[in-house]
Amino acid sequence: MKRSLGWASAVALAVVGFSWPVGAQQPPQGGTTPPVQVGVPGGGRGAGTTGAPGGGRGRRGGGPSKPAPRGPDGRVILGGETPTHKGLWLPQGVITTSFQTKVADIPFQPWAKALYEDRQTHRLEPHARCKPSGAVRQMQTPYGVEFVELPEIHRVYIFDVGGPHTYREIYMDRRDHPANLPPTYYGHSVGWWEGDTLVVDTVGYNEDFWVDRGGTPTTDKLHTIERFTRTSDNTMVYEATIDDPLAYTKPFTGRLNLRWEDGTELFEYVCQEQNYAGTLMVGASVTEGHVDRTSPFVP
User: Looking at the domain assignment, is residue 132 inside a domain?
Assistant: First the structure.
């Protein structure tokens, strides 16, 4: 963990904010499945609060937004305007449910619906046990994420700040997904630009994480298409299409907004320190003040 944090900080100091030199890139062979719109989430903590300890200079609900920063080639920059301009992207409101507003519209397979409902009771989320969580769940951490673009090696990295303190690697060199991928928490991601939108196509996920904070089930057949669109200096629209034929009868799409926390950098985070997730995972008695261990707990 310390090695990853140090490398991330060094990379961020050197390159965050540089523009991408290659032109608009094309998706891998095979294309994507047209999305099915479900909705936009709401509720949770308001956009005018800070999610990372120590805050930063982020805009907290007052004053107009400025245009998104752009590089010399005219393309939107995902991070700060310069290598020394720091900031993180946080969810606009802490979303503790699925990233779709209308759960009734999610096209569950019967077993997936039953598992989803069970997770609403037990909340045995792997992220609370310091496990990496791919796709939507990475964008829902209240501590935020940092985008680091490395044009010289055709990569984009997304670093977690809290929780498992890990990172995703997105290949931007027009490659296809390799065959026979070993399943991982983040899967194998390839990306390209469609105007000002970074599009990320990912396969090769394992089944050991929740794809969002609400416990929406997925299998190792999960295929996601994510779209990151920075619409102003302090707002990014995040859209994800979930395509998993073993868990759902058809693909579906949800959206959420991310907000820019200006001036905040990656900071040290030890996932096990003061870990109070035990009561969340196995349940606690509000009236008696002790953990209810009548339900099975699998670490």
Answer: yes
Place of tokens 């303190």: 165
Distance CA(242)–CA(261), nearest Å, equals 28
> pTM, whole model, 2 decimals?
0.73
**281: how many CB neighbours lie within 10 A of its CB?**
19
The tokens for 283 are 């349940």
- Residue ranges for the chain with pLDDT beneath 50: 1-62, 299
DSSP reduced 3-state for 20: coil
Q: Which domain holds residue 117?
A: 2-60+85-282
Contacts of 132 (CB under 8 A, 6+ apart): 138, 160, 163, 164, 166, 185, 186, 209
> Which helix (H) or strand (E) covers residue 91, if one does?
strand 87-91
Contacts of 257 (CB under 8 A, 6+ apart): 47, 91, 92, 235, 236, 237, 238
Report if residue 69 sits inside a domain. no
For residue 6, the one-letter residue type is G
pLDDT in tens, 123-141: 778 887 788 999 999 999 8
pLDDT in tens, 62-98: 457 899 999 888 999 999 888 888 999 999 875 666 6
**What element of type H or E holds 136?**
helix 136-139
252-262/235-243 β-pairing: antiparallel
On whether residue 65 sits in a domain, the answer given is no
Q: How many domains would you assign to the chain?
A: 1
Structure tokens at 232: 């102003």
Tokens of 32: 């994507």
Does 297 fall in a domain? Answer: no
182-204: burial string, b at 16+ Cβ within 10 Å, e else: eeebbbbbbbbbeebbbbbbbbb
Tell me how far CA of residue 32 lies from CA of 181, 206, 251, 256, in angstroms.
19, 20, 11, 21
User: What pLDDT sits at residue 277?
Assistant: 57
